[in-house]
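User: What would this chain look like folded?
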Amino acid sequence: MKTNNLVEKYSKIQAEIIQNSEFENINTREAAVTKIKFCIIPDMPLINKLLPVNYYEVSAVQNDVTAYNSFQSIRSALLTQFYEYKQEVKNSINPIYAIQDMLLIPSNILAWLGIRLSISSGRILSVLIWIFGFVATNYGKDILSFFIKHFVNH
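Assistant: Here's the prediction, encoded as structure tokens.
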């Protein structure tokens, strides 16, 4: 898992910088930022691939504070992405989420078409569509013959 590797790598760098108070000391700040730039610049293509938006940038010409803040933002975004990914993995193997996704297919289709419903109305509509589909599948011919017999022949 590439995100996990980057998170571990950057967390170690962060811990070193904090432990050694490198960024607070003006004499060691340049060394700390050089370490950050040396580590993060080669990883930027991978970082931009892993993160949903490519708005982070670390370059060799940035001043120290900007580079450090960019490093903090990237590390934070990678952590967020990593834990969201872990939660998605948990949800994908949990059968309750799979059943829930299957039951909400009708409201998800409507949402995909641009029709936004509240959570409760979307669930009610999905249940009604599933009930209608079940009744139509199992009793459709009987219902159709009833309507033809009582309404069309008169």
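The radius of gyration is 28 Å. If you want, I can go into more detail on any region.
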